[in-house]
Known about the structure:
about 375 residues, alpha/beta, TIM Barrel, 2 domains, 14 strands, about 40% helix, globular
Amino acid sequence: MNQHKNNSIAKDKPHGLIPFYIPHAGCPQQCVFCNQHRIAAGGARASQVDVKATIDEYIGNERHEKYWEVAFYGGSFSALPEDLQRSLLEPAYEALQNGEIDAIRCSTRPDALGETEIALLKAYGVATVEIGVQSMDDTILTRAKRGHSSAEVVGAVQRLQEHGFTVGIQLLPGLPGENWHTLVNTAVAVAELMPDFVRIYPVLVIEDTELADDVRAGRYTPLTVAEAVTYSAFLKEYFEERHITVIRTGLQSTPELDAGIGLVGGPYEPAMGELVTNYQWLQRFLKILQAHSAAGLPMHSVTVLYPRQLTSKVRGEKQRNMKYLAECYADCTWQWYEQGSKKAKAMFEIKTNKFSDNVLLFIDNFRYNVI
Length: 371
């Protein structure tokens, strides 16, 4: 494992992020969906003067309590003028060299990651680069006015990987022109690049954007929450099956977004990540139940056995999975037990003496591992 990869591993310490936002800085044009000034509200504004002071303020007396990482978010960092990049990176790199922080990361666009730009980031100790990819469909990228192609994404990721960077990809399912065909093609294309992680942000329509104008004119219909959950769950499952970590699903909530301020439409849901995970578990249950029925096997009693740490994920927010399955399979008796509980031990002590961390599904006398 290379030096950059080692620096990006948080080991057993909690992650301490020191974010600096540079809304829209470096971007050559305005994407139809973008209003970074609203999305990045509340973060420290990046400037040469306060980077060092902000690092000291965040760390305080907790230097050894967390894995500290400086992050430049919000714009296209590597597209900034070189002297501005250096002025922002210098105090962060100094803190890295002095052992005051553990890592530096930035976000940028794929067409601003040539060999020259990558060399500058590498020289200042940047270990992780997140790329705003959004889609791997060129028609969608053109409609969104991204200003780059899917081929440029491939080249940028490959160059970063050759230089040993940890690479993240950000996707925006639900852009104008998106459908299941384009979504699946994007998933396949991204997975082939084998990034270290992915973020999934279903498209929100923010005020003062071209997309907001399109909604009002009837030219664009945002995703519903249900559609966003379905799209995101597919992407998350697809990547996880290929050992690509999805570190976030859904835009992080802010007081402004929670109040609906500046939000014209789209699937804003503070618990989007939880809803997507709930949906993943529901699909796993349905796959087993449908296969059991297709085999012509009886189904009178269904019992779900799960570890405590998966309770909310398996049962669903407000028990939505429990309710849905009970309605779909109303002829069955449903029981849900936490592993280790008295009821579970009494009921399953004959079938097994030790439960793993897996979720188990018992249909009459058949036992299935839900994976």
